[in-house]
Amino acid sequence: MHQLLVEGDRHDAYTTGSLQRGGHNSAASDHAWAVTRAVATGSVQAGWSRAAFVQVLLDGPYPAGQPARALQHRRGYDHAVAWLHRAFDGAHHYLQAHDPLFGRQDFHAALAVYRTRIERTPWAGTAAKTDLRNLIARLDICTQSGGWDHTVSERDLAERLGCARTTTHRSNQRLLRARLLRQLDHGSPTQGARWMLLAPTGTGPLTLSHHGSTPQRPQAGGAMSGPTMRHTHRNRHRGSDNDADLNSRAAARLMSLDAFAHRGLSSSGLAILAALAERDGQTLAELQASASISRATAYRQRTTLTQLGLITQHGELLHLAPTALNGKGQPGPQCEHPATGWTDVAKRLGVDGVAHRRRQHHQAERARWHNTQLQLTTRHTQTPPAPQARQARQARQAQTSRGTASGRQANTSSRKAGLHNPEDTTPTLTPQMLGSTAYPQRSTRYP
């Protein structure tokens, strides 16, 4: 809030694009009100009085008070003071209705509530599972930093998520549109971008814009035949559609491993293990709801995980092997050779070394960027040549250009005089060589 007051909204964190009735753009007024309300919230938390808040914004030289001073210039002092009083009183009522964060313990308590909301939110679809990985990774970073704002680059975040950098970039854009993430700056050449994790008000599942459906399979007669339909994922067992329940800490430990790459167990296998780690002994229908996956994906992943020995089935219930989170399977009726670790799982699925190659690629990109910057710096800091060397070089260039010009002039004079160049081996065509006609015939040598 002090930075917002002194420097203003440099990163456009409070901008909106709303339109009033009639097409009038109210983005500027909405932005001014949002900045003033944010500064008012900070002043209330700091213990300021309403008179001190008005005095700082109207009499001070701070950029955050520019809208209030402009309003005073247009409408008068009383109107500007009433506008600031309304912002201060609204911020005071807001803080009374919500629990503010006064220390690290309050932040960790709010972080635990936010983690629970993420675990109880249904993340249906491949893109939503990537966003789940993104939020889980950012929760761990915020836990270490001790605040909602944190610094991380896209490449480092991609290595934490276990996916490509482009996939991470698209996930960041979706979270920005969903108002779950805010970008404070774009970083520097040696430091990643600064982000802020936004915790919406409420205690239920997060409101997401992901389309919880998958395309219908191609109909008989070709991929373009049949109606364009989508299968909606609805879990009607246990009387609720929002029965998602995951263990995000277990998912954070596993999601960067090779075994959970795109061609391996992928995010759906990670969600199944995280759901069983949270509540062991679920039926396939319950696991479909808790992991937010489709029925076909649940059957396919159950077969793969059972063959690896990571889960066992007793009747209709699926149980997690005792050492499944370490990648070690348990022998059973459907598993003769259980997995001995996550490296063994990655080798069996053909995704061994994906994370290592991704880190090498990112390291090569960083090294190439540093080499380019070093070359540019060296080029700009090179000392100019001495005057004598510059003059000698200019004299050589002038002599070379004069020699070229005189040679070109001699060749032109020879052609005008009809002289034959002794170095030219091309024979001269005459009427006697061509026969009766005086015009050369088309040949392969002279097309």
What is the distance, rounded to the nearest whole angstrom, between the alpha carbons of the first and last residues? 80 Å
Secondary-structure element order, N to C: HHHHHHHEHHEEEEHHHHEEHHHH
The structural class is mainly alpha
Order of strands across the main sheet: 1-3-2
Main sheet, how many strands, which sense, barrel?
3 strands, antiparallel
The number of strands is 7
Outline type: flat
Low-confidence runs of at least 5 consecutive residues:
17-25, 211-241, 422-426, 433-440, 442-447
Short note summarizing the structure:
The protein has 447 residues and is mostly helical. It is 53% helix and 6% strand.
Structure commentary:
The chain is mainly α and 447 residues long. 53% of the residues lie in helices and 6% in strands. It has helices at 2-7, 27-46, 50-59, 66-75, 77-97, 104-119, 126-145, 154-161, 165-177, 248-254, 266-278, 284-290, 295-308, 342-349, 354-381, 387-417, 431-434; strands at residues 149-152, 181-185, 193-197, 213-215, 230-232, 311-314, 317-320. The strands form 3 sheets. A 3-stranded antiparallel beta sheet has the order 1-3-2. β6 (311-314) and β7 form a beta hairpin.
